[in-house]
């Protein structure tokens, strides 16, 4: 809270009244204060008139601003809740925002805690593998972190699947070899589950049962094959060789007699 000192009065305020002129202790800035019933009561030591708390502006100290930012609030949220100037809040919030960003970066190098202990892969490697297996872009993610009242860090991962925005939270514990990250909600537990890439079991179709109470149908006899319409070929008759006439020898022709072996 800044301290002011009275340096004079302003009688020409344009409204027929008097204003009190104040300046900072360094003398670099000046302020004008218009007297009202609350100021007169405060100067005279009387009780202040009743006024709703919502009408009394509360200027946050730098420590209060940083405490709220460290707990996860944004600059706009702190300025809106306190009715303070965004530029002023941002000036004190800047180093704390860097601290949160650094904590989120360190958390990505931590090892997820599984049922059998910390995983070999880092949180970033595990998340990247899970998102790629789901057909999502691992680069389209946002990391944030804030410190809880107990001093522990909560890390938030935000990613998009289609038009929906998804959020997962982890508890980050700094330590040797990067520290550990424990799933804080179901979304986080699903992302670091080492069995997420197993295909779902296919349902088995029920086996049909035979109803023995009904007689089994007798199969119809197959029809006999139709006789061939092609006429049978007549059996081939053996072919007889015709006997050649015997040619008389030369002696028979010349002597007019037949050989002894001729009939």
Keywords:
alpha+beta; single chain; 6-stranded mixed β-sheet; 7 helices; 263 residues
Q: Which class best fits the helix and strand makeup?
A: alpha+beta
Radius of gyration over C-alpha positions, nearest whole angstrom = 54 Å
Percent strand: 15-25%
**What does the overall shape look like?**
elongated
Distance between the termini: 166 Å
**Share of residues in helices:** 25-40%
Looking across the biggest beta sheet, what order are the strands in?
Answer: 5-4-9-8-7-6
Biggest sheet layout: 6 strands, mixed
Compressed to H and E, one letter per element, the order equals EEEHHHHEEHEEEEHH
Mean pLDDT: 76
**Count, helices:** 7
The total count of strands amounts to 9
Low-confidence stretches: 52-56, 198-210, 258-262
In a nutshell, what does this entry contain?
The protein is α+β, with helices and mostly antiparallel strands. 27% of the residues lie in helices and 20% in strands.
Give an overview of the whole structure:
Pfam families: DUF3071. It comes from Mycobacterium yunnanensis. This is DUF3071 domain-containing protein. InterPro entries: DUF3071 (IPR021421), SepH-like (IPR047682). Residues 216-228 have a biased composition (Pro residues). This protein is of the alpha+beta class and 263 residues long. The protein contains 7 helices and 9 strands; from the N terminus they run βββααααββαββββαα. The chain has a 6-stranded mixed beta sheet. A 3-stranded antiparallel beta sheet has the order 1-2-3, with no helix packed on it. A hairpin with a 2-residue loop joins strand 4 and strand 5 (117-118). Helix 3 runs antiparallel to helix 4. The longest helix has 23 residues, at 86-108. The protein is elongated.
